[in-house]
Write a structure and sequence with these properties.
homodimer; two-stranded antiparallel sheet; 9 helices; 2 strands; 4% strand
Chain lengths: 181, 181
Amino acid sequence: MPIDLEEAIALLQRTPAVLDALLRNLPETWTLRNEGEKTWSAFDVVGHLIHGERTDWLPRAKRILEFGETKAFEPFDRFAQERESRGKSLGQLLEEFARLRAQNLKELRGLNLRPADLEKRGRHPALGVVTLGELLATWAAHDLTHLHQLSRILAYPYREAVGPWRKFLGVMACAGHSAAT
Amino acid sequence: MPIDLEEAIALLQRTPAVLDALLRNLPETWTLRNEGEKTWSAFDVVGHLIHGERTDWLPRAKRILEFGETKAFEPFDRFAQERESRGKSLGQLLEEFARLRAQNLKELRGLNLRPADLEKRGRHPALGVVTLGELLATWAAHDLTHLHQLSRILAYPYREAVGPWRKFLGVMACAGHSAAT
């Protein structure tokens, strides 16, 4: 069942405003705190999304269209934001993400993809053969996976403060479940 | 460790704009779809949050201040939105939620709570003794638990479409974990 490209874009174009509403000017208690050693803060997550806009989703889509399965995608650097976000404010990162996402969706629309194009195949360095439709569905689902993670990161400082309600709050029980994309 | 009331309010006041940015005018593929039998759609979640504004958080806070432990909270109806949302659009629900939340936060500020007030005790019908600070922390964490749930509900229609990336996407592996509050 191939995705409807307009429906995927409807989700993708919302993410910058969602993150802005959630994170801009939120106290640093929330935005710089992570979930313990080797986990990410909200600041780290936005940097990761920026790096994806630059190097992952649209560049991989274009590689599929140009090279098919003959040239694998570049591996994605999950730690790039540690250098690339350095010295920036969260507000700057939110603006950078919004600008890059808008540019990329404009370029995606400009590709004028038809449903048949979504069946085109490329090569992921770890997963092997994937289709353009799978890549674009993953772009949208990847936003949601990080929104899922952000809600958990923001809830983390309150895990004691909620007292006996903790057992009723799903976000406090979430084990994370993510890996590299 | 008591919560900082201003920091809790900083989160609480953001939620209506976050949900609006995420859900308003999103195709019904996303907003009316649930995760299978007896689960909620995004539309259901917003209705549930509205019912909480009307009957749960601030009314319970006022009961603590007025009656302490001597009068238990009214039990919360987790299914009220099935009748209360009937015939309404998601846009209407988003506006109703934003209006009620703004009113409630204005009233909360008007209570002029001091840190010592957060230690005041009330009685939850199932959990027993709880403090005002725990109730207010739970109000904020409850928003996050439903943002966590919403990201999962929206990802659900794409669990096949993402192909082999599914195993990398934490939101696809989330088991829910929620119960009544």
